[in-house]
Each structure stands twice: as C-alpha cells, then as structure tokens.
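Q: A reviewer asked whether we had any structural model of the full assembly, not just the individual parts. We don't, so I'm hoping you can provide one. Inputs are below.
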Amino acid sequence: MKHYLFVIGAFALATSCLMHRAIAKEVILSSVEKNILVDDRTYTAGDFGVSAASADWSVTKTTLRGGMQNGVELVTIDNGEIEIEIIPTRGMNVMCVRGNGLTLGWDSPVKEIVHPRNVNLNYNSGLGWLDSFTEWMVRCGLEYSGHPGDDNGRLMTLHGRIAHIPASEVTIKVDKLSPHRISLTGVVNEVWFKGANFTLETTISTVPGSNTFRFDDTVTNNSSQDKEFQVLYHANFAKELLEKGSRMEGTISEVQPFNNYAAKSLDTHQIYDAPAKVWADEKVYQITPFADQDGFAHFMLHNQKAGKGVSFHFNIDALPYLTQWKNEDSRENGYVTGLEPGNTFPANRSHERKMGRLPKIGAGETISYQLEYSLLTNPKEVKLARAKIDQLNKGRSIKWGKKAER
Amino acid sequence: MKHYLFVIGAFALATSCLMHRAIAKEVILSSVEKNILVDDRTYTAGDFGVSAASADWSVTKTTLRGGMQNGVELVTIDNGEIEIEIIPTRGMNVMCVRGNGLTLGWDSPVKEIVHPRNVNLNYNSGLGWLDSFTEWMVRCGLEYSGHPGDDNGRLMTLHGRIAHIPASEVTIKVDKLSPHRISLTGVVNEVWFKGANFTLETTISTVPGSNTFRFDDTVTNNSSQDKEFQVLYHANFAKELLEKGSRMEGTISEVQPFNNYAAKSLDTHQIYDAPAKVWADEKVYQITPFADQDGFAHFMLHNQKAGKGVSFHFNIDALPYLTQWKNEDSRENGYVTGLEPGNTFPANRSHERKMGRLPKIGAGETISYQLEYSLLTNPKEVKLARAKIDQLNKGRSIKWGKKAER
Amino acid sequence: MKHYLFVIGAFALATSCLMHRAIAKEVILSSVEKNILVDDRTYTAGDFGVSAASADWSVTKTTLRGGMQNGVELVTIDNGEIEIEIIPTRGMNVMCVRGNGLTLGWDSPVKEIVHPRNVNLNYNSGLGWLDSFTEWMVRCGLEYSGHPGDDNGRLMTLHGRIAHIPASEVTIKVDKLSPHRISLTGVVNEVWFKGANFTLETTISTVPGSNTFRFDDTVTNNSSQDKEFQVLYHANFAKELLEKGSRMEGTISEVQPFNNYAAKSLDTHQIYDAPAKVWADEKVYQITPFADQDGFAHFMLHNQKAGKGVSFHFNIDALPYLTQWKNEDSRENGYVTGLEPGNTFPANRSHERKMGRLPKIGAGETISYQLEYSLLTNPKEVKLARAKIDQLNKGRSIKWGKKAER
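A: Here is a predicted structure for the entire assembly that you could use as a starting point for your response.
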C-alpha cells in the first residue's frame, strides 16, 4: 500500500488552515441524516453573520424543472467576481465557472443537466455515461474509471458511477475571519453490498472577489478490505479558450499517445486545431507530469492570442497522471478538450492493472486531492502563469513515448 | 440524401396555415429553458382571450401520483367533443382519445402510465420497453426502432428510446381566429455525446367541437453528420373497435407476412378474430401503402357491425410503410391491433438496412410528418370513410408477398 | 397445478377474522386509482374514531429527502410497544422493527433506503440488487428470484424485481373492535406486456401494545396462462441478535449445504461465529422445515446469552423451504444472517426448475402467505419460544444432505 504523505508547503498550509479554520455558520442544503432538502433560496453574507467583505457574494440553491433535468439540485456560488455552478445531484460535479468574459465549460450536444435517474450506465455496451456528458468538471471513478469493457467478467461502464450518485450531505460554510472563504461541502457514497464502499467528500471553495477556486477532496475506503480504485478529474474546456492555435502548457515529464490517430501528431499535441466541419476523431495523450517543490503539477490552457486562459495545479502524490483529450470534432458534435488529472490513465481498468498503474486504497484509508483553478482574464495573467510553468520546465526535456499498446 | 418535397394539396395548405397562423396567446406548461413546470391547473378559452367558440373546451395539466406513475405529467385536451390525453413525460405519447362512446386505446396488462425513470430499456435482453407499453400512440425511434438485437456490436433495444424521454418544452397555443384550433407542442431531444442528436417537435392539435385531431411532427438531425434513423407511429386499437369481425381497410399496394404464423392467414389479414381464451401468437404484416393525389395514404378500422370506427391518413413521402400487428391474444394478456405508419418495418435495424429500407437524415435536415385521425361514431361516418378508401382502391389490386426472410 | 388448501387452525381462523373484520375507518396514503399521495402526516386513534385502547399508537407517513433516498415513501407503525418501518416505494419492504432494546434489522454498508429509480437491476451482470440491499425484510420474486444468470436466454437478475416496484395502493385500516388491530395494506404489481402479470397484496398488521406483528400476503396471477413464479422472504438479522454464540432453532426436517464452504461446517450451521476482521465468505444452507398441526413451521434466533431473540412461523403449504444465509463477514462489510422462507431455494431459476422445485401459479389463481414475528425481549420469552420448538422436534431427527450440485 502506497502511503500518501501529507504535502509540505504553502498550499498544504492553506489546506491545513481550511481544515481547522473557524466557521461563521453552517447552512445545510440537503441531508440524508437530518432528512432535509432546501428548495429554491439565496444566501448572502448576512445569513452567515459576516460582513460582505471585499465583494458582494451569494450562494443560491435552485431545483431544475422540466425535461431530463427535472429535480436536479443546483448550487451557484457567486463570489462577486466568478460564478461556480455545482450539481449535488450529479456527485458534486461542476457545470461551469464563469466571470469576466471567461467560461470554464463547453457546448456539449447534451444540453440539459440530465438527472442520474434518467441515465443507464449499462446502456450501449457501457457507454450510457455519454447520455449526460455536459459538465465542465465530471469526476470519474471510484471503483473504476476509463473505457468500457470487461474486467474479470464484469462490465466496467465508461468512467464509473460517481458522477451519477447524488450527494447525501450538502453544506455551505463561510469562514468567520476575513476574507471569509465560501465553501460548499458534499458527501457522496459509492457503495454496494459485497463490493465498493467509498466516500468522496469534496469541498469546493473560493474567496470573495477572487478569480480562483479550489477542490479539497478526500476519498475514504470504508471497507475492511484493501480495494482497487480509480479517480479522474474529467475537466472539459472550450468556449472562449479553445480555437485554432490554442495552447496547453504544463510541467510535463513524459507524453505517450493513447491511440494511433494521436501518435501521428504527437509533436503538436500542445496546440489545437479549429473544429472540424463534419467530423474528427479523438486524439488522446497520456501525460506524466512532474511536481514543484511543494508536490504540485502545474498546467494551463490559453487561447490563440494568449489573452484568456485557465491555469491549475494538483498534488501528484495522489494524482500522478494527466490525460489530454483533444476532441477537435465539429461544434455541433462537441468541440472540446479534456485536461484530466487522475490516478490512472483512461484505458479499461483491466489494462491499467496490467500496466501497473492501478492503485489500491487500504481498509479505512483516506486519500486527499487538491486542485486549484484560476481564470486568466487578460494577457498579463496568461503571461504570468506561463512564466511560472516555463520556470519549472527550465533545464528539463519531455520524454516522448510510443503509442500505448493495448 | 432523399429530399422531402413539401406536399401540395388541401392538407398541406392547412399545415402551412398552422405554421403561419396567428396565435392568441401561448401558455408554457414546462420549459427547461425557462425552468418552469406547471402543476395541476385547467385552462379555458378565457385564459387565451378568445371566445369558447363552437364548443366548451379546456386544457388540463395534471401530475400523476403514486406507484410507477408517480411524477408523470399529463395534459388533457377536451375539445368539447373528444378528450385527448397526452403524456409529455413519455415523449409526448398519447394515452388515449375518447368521446361519443368511442375510445382510441386498449387494455394493456400494464395499467399505469409508467415513468421513464422506472424503465430500463436494456432489461430482458432489450425488451424493457414492454414494461411500460400501455398507450394508444407510442412513437418508436429515433436512432433505431424495431425488434431488439445486435447491430454492429450495439444492442438495439425494442423500439428505441423516444417514448422514454420527457419533453423539454411543452406549450399550449390557441389560434386567434375562429375556429380557434387548440395545439399542444412538445420538444423532445434524443441525444448522446458522439451519437444521436435528434429533436422531435410534435404539435397535436384539434378544432373545438370536432371528432378529428392531428399530429404535425418534425424530426431534425442536429448533428454535423448524416445519420440513419427510424420512425414508427405505434398506434394501438382495441376497446370498442376490436372484436371478432372487425375490419381494417386501406390504400394498400402490397402486403407481406412478417412471420410464419402471419403467413398462414395472409388472405384474411384485414379481418380480426375474437380474443384467445388462453394465449395466441402475434400476426404481423408489412404493408406498403399508396397515396392519394396529395401524397396521403388512407386507412381505417371498424367494428364488426361497421357502426364505430377510426380513419386516418399520413404522408407517405416520410412514412412509406405501415405495419399491421394483430395481437389476438386473451383479454388478460392484451387483445389489441397496432396499425403503425413508419419509415421502416419493425425488424431489427440491421435487417432493415440489409433490405434497403433504412433511411438517412442529412446533417441539419428536418423531415415532416402529418397524421390525422377521425373518430367515426356512427354507421354513416364509417360508410363515408370506407367509400373514400374504396374509391382510391378502384382498379387497383394488392400484391401479395411471401414471408419476409430474416 | 398444486392446489393450496386453506389452512385449518387457530392462525387460519385469525386470518379469516382479519379478512372479514369490521374496519373503523380506512385512510388512503397513496393511490394510483385515485391519484393520491399523502405527504408527511401522523395518524392516531382519534383519526380512526377509536379509543387508543391498550397503548398509545400512531401511524406516520414520511417522505425521505436527499441523496439516493430522495422521494422514498416511509410509513412507521408505532403500536406503543414496537415501531415497524415500512417502505411502500420499495415493494412494501420493511426497513426495521424495533422496541424494548431489540431491533429486527442489520447494519448494511448501504446506509440509505435507495429509491428504485436509482437502481439498475441489470448492473454488474445482474447484481444491481446489491446496490440497495439494506432492509430487514426484502421480498424476492415474483417472476424469478435467486442467483443471477441465464435462464433460456434471459438474464435473471439477482432476487427479481418486486423489491424495486413502488406500491400502487397503500391504505391504513384499524379494526373497529378492540384490540383495534392496525393494518397497512399495499398493492404491488409486477407486470410486463407478454410476460409476468402478478399482483402482490400485503397486509402488515399489529395489535397495539404487542410485541408481535404479521404479514398476510397474497400473490395473484392476473394472466390467462399458468406461470412459473418464485417467492422468498429475505429477512436479515444482526444488531442485538447476532454475535459469537447466537443460535438458530427451528422445526427442521432436512439440511443441505448450498456451497462448499457451508458444507465444511454443516454440523454447526445453527451456531454463529463472531464477525470476521477482514473478510469471510458466505455459508448458505437449504433447509426443509416441517409444520405443526396447523401447517406452520416455527423458527427462532437468539443471542449468545439467550436473553434476546426473535421467533416466527409461516405456512409451509405456500412456503415449503427456508434458506439460512450466514454472512459472518466483517462489521464494515455487513455482518448478518438471513432466515428466508421461500417457495424455492436461492439458486438460479433454471436450476430450481431442474431440481423440481420451481412452482407454477395457475391463471387467475391467488396464493396466500402468512408470516408472524415476535420480538423476544427477555430470557423468559426466549425460553418459551425455544420450548415450543423443542416440543415439536421431539422424537424427530434432522436429515443431513450433501452439498447441493449445480
């Protein structure tokens, strides 16, 4: 069992502060334990007994009505600068983040936030997950993630179940002390008798008035047995960020093409094409990042003119891989790129096991994930983020792999 | 890509009027776009600012409670003469139409209007659709219809998905001008990432005080690629219309038995038997209709005494086939006949492709379907409908096919 | 077709009284027929126009909110002495029964009362039933029960569908005459077109102030054809009743180990081990009981000190078998034993048919099931129950079978 050391450094300290910080007041949005489900309502600083501080912020709970999204719970954190739309009903996925002319998200052909009760993951030989694929951030896992197919007589459905499990407990917390960080915590249980027994606890938080937000997630194995598990943060970008000439940068140690089509343009994997007119195949790259001195890998994506972008970092002790999914298909079919930190690559679980990439989590063990995203809304911010990555890459070179065998 | 010419003629003109007619007022019953879902309420002429005209009509929105139908949305158009029960939650299917001692519908062993969230189409090797089969009119399609089974590695589930997709937008419209036609429009999206991307827009409309109603449907392919697709209007008749000696008539060009059991009584396919005591197998006939000068095929079904019946016509450019399904099973098991206009026959998609009957819809293309039904509530009306079909059949003969090979 | 004779004797008379007894008033909690679904409310003796009699009782209807149990209907009968939690949404299963320091139920790793709409029975090669396995009493059946696998080309999903079908009609009835027995009746329909057409009508009843409650269930075949069917009352015990040294007793005629692991400790099948630390396999025994003069088999389970226990009896004309499932797994994984009266054993339907154990129910036939449970809350009650079973066993011996072949 690999032991996940607690990361030392600035971010780790921040996390530590998050864990022990004084909370002004806690608001329960939904709770299985207390049999609570709040309907439509907006909360502001006054509801938490704190001053609005640097920005006029709010948290709004909505229930969606009609069509395939009937009954879906939505929570919008508006920190005064950016809005973060979180979907408790879909495993605390994030629909989109937007502000200052920038959107984290994409235009999927699936337009609605489909209720999990409308989705059959077994459908279409295990591709049912695609019936509801529309969010900016979809977590994949936890018992398995990756491509559908057989693993020891079981059909692994595409990307696992966690995105289709409603959160059992959802709570807003606001820091008592300035700058009054706003947090939304959700508890999602993936469990079946004689099988998986995992708890994902996620806290999505942001400081009022900032362009930054982060995930502080933990996965706990409640079973008395060690278990294989997979985690993939399937974050999908398009909107203002993806176009011909858009560029992805990162602290990359190694790149391996996942499929033949990707192998053909390995050397330009960091640069994006325009959307196809009719149809284009996917290019997937398996990236092994390296970390800064605090244990974080750094990545970014920016548009052609480098005027808008997004940067993010994550702890590679728990998330040692990043999958780059280039889907330069038509706009109608969903032009998008996924930049997906994970603890494996997205092949079927049976393949990842064979490649020695399938981790285990011990009985009772808890593993922590930290991912922080910043919206870069002008050339200066893009340049700064790029400079940081360039600095880390100085003196290093990328190892180019051959097409992954399967 | 076959081009669907706009049909010239009286009906086409009516359709054209429908498209460009002045609307008194529009009432939204549910909308994903506007996050609206109206609960129980009845609307009358006054709500639309029009006079009640020739008949005292109403439109009622109900939400069903309890059992397998909990949460199902139902809309009842009562035009003063007939009631039409439409189910937005089930792809705008029609539960039944009734008035003047006549019912379009049947007594399925499935008694409830089962919510799609209670149905697993994959169930029972792809027969899950039968768990909720109870309506008068069930649309089948759109990515595929027909019998379950493999097509290129995918399980085609019986009759496709469209009947189990809730409408995203549902609107009542009433014509400003007399006779104040009442319309219910629903938008249903069948979509998955990297797959189907179809929109069905259906308008079910009737004139106050009439015995007639119609479907003005369109199917649009939102993808950037041409796509195979299937459409079948699975309309099921029993109640006052089906008994020993009931008779189906139509503008029939060719008849081919679908199965061996059907082949044995090919020459009497237009006449019905009494329900079986214990059990009877199905007889299915593949019918190729011909059209009148306006492009419409005409069919009817009447009871033994020819005192009650139903007549209908549909545009054969988009619906070139009709499947006759004779299920002369026991009353307990669901004595019923289906008269089903479609763009293919009901074998598995792989078979229809092989037979050259599987159509494609172009990228961005929209195809229109018009079906008009009339309740024939006395011998005179039955006789008139019969005379019209006889007139069209004059001088023609039916081509009898052999059992369909599969 | 085996004919099920009406059982003669005390219990039968009581049943007869139940059927013809005068009802003070009937309260509808939910009804498909009447389009009713009562939200949160508590009913007491006054609501039925009767005196509170020997105990201060109530019936409470709750709707659960949040997570996987959002929308689940729960009815709690508090008879003044014990509380019975019934789940209409899950086929009238019983979550738990508790009172006087004793609980019928267990600690499943599945903590929530999962809504059937969140369950895909096909999942995991037909093991989807385990995603929601948490109740004290789960009925299995009716078209099939038992282990998943193929039967004539159909996937039999684990333990069938009845636990995942919401009741269509739910009614509280209270006897007009003292002791004012409280009954909850539910109607659950398992039906698909061209397939199963069964109705389960269950009445769960208790006398105010008593430690006893019972099931008076009927299964009716609404089809015009005779049908195979399976019924298993999957009752699961742990909490205060299961520990190292707990003991099961019963009117046992024959015992056969179901699996190899069970065969190894056949002679101690009546005694339980402590929960495993990490993991333990299941031991399953196929028990053929014998009946008392009134047609009832008697069983009991008590803790190591014989200070707490449960006793129950059931009619063996309709329930000729009992499956003992010893799951001495870790507490985290769900330490539990099932004592499961049934009309077959829990192998796949195809195997039970081969073994001559798969019964049929005639067209239109109704079969009755009576099961009565008593909470034994002190050593005296345990001793009395044990004495009754010992008396019945006097002069008899158990036939020990070999491992069941499959």
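A: Points you may want to mention in the reply: Helices of chain A lie at 10-20, 123-126, 260-263, 349-354, 379-393. Chain A has a mean pLDDT of 94.
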